[in-house]
User: Which sequence fits this backbone?
C-alpha cells in the first residue's frame, strides 16, 4: 500500500567552488540554503568540525539548524496548544542546546537536545505548572521533527521525553 504524503518541503542547498584548487580538506565549505519563500541563509560547517578558513563561523551549521528545527517545531506546537486552551502567551524563548557525541553505533551524532523554554503568559489567565507540563508533553508528542529523529529530547524542568 502506497502512503500518500500530506505535504512536500523543499530546501535548495547550493555550493560553488571559489578557489583555484580543490584538494582534500583545503577548500571552503561555505554554502547557501534557499527556501521557497525566498529566504537565503549562509551556511557552513561548524568551526568545531572544519577549521577556519574552510568554514565560516557567521554561517548556520547543520547541527545548529537541526537543534533550531527541533526547538522551533516544539514552540509552534506549544503555542497552538496554549491558544486552543485560551492561555495568552506574550513571549516564548528557548536556548536549545545540542550535544554532539558518539551514538550507540560509535558514529558522531547529535545524541541529545535540551530545550530550555522560557514562556511569559498574560497575567489574567495563568496556567498551572501541571498544565504547562502537559502542554509541553503534548507539543513534544505532536512535533513532526521530534517524531522523525532518534535523538533524546529533554524539556528542562520536565521529565525526559
Assistant:
Amino acid at each position: 500500500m502506497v502512503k500518500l504524503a500530506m505535504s512536500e518541503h523543499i530546501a535548495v542547498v547550493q555550493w560553488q567552488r571559489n578557489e583555484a584548487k580543490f584538494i582534500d580538506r583545503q577548500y571552503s565549505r561555505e554554502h547557501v540554503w534557499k527556501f521557497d519563500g525566498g529566504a537565503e541563509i549562509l551556511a557552513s560547517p561548524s568551526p568545531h568540525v572544519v577549521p577556519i578558513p574552510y568554514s565560516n563561523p557567521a554561517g548556520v551549521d547543520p547541527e545548529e539548524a537541526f537543534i533550531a528545527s527541533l526547538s522551533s517545531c516544539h514552540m509552534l506546537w506549544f503555542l497552538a496548544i496554549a491558544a486552543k486552551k485560551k492561555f495568552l502567551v506574550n513571549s516564548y524563548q528557548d536556548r536549545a542546546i545540542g550535544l554532539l557525541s558518539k551514538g550507540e553505533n560509535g558514529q558522531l551524532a547529535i545524541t541529545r537536545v535540551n530545550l530550555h523554554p522560557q514562556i511569559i503568559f498574560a497575567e489574567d489567565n495563568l496556567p498551572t505548572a501541571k498544565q504547562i507540563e502537559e502542554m509541553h508533553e503534548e507539543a513534544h508528542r505532536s512535533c513532526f521533527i521530534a517524531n522523525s529523529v532518534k535523538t533524546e529530547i529533554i524539556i528542562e524542568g520536565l521529565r525526559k521525553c
About this structure: Helices lie at 62-84, 129-142. The chain has two domains: 1-60, 62-155. The two ends are 31 Å apart (CA to CA).
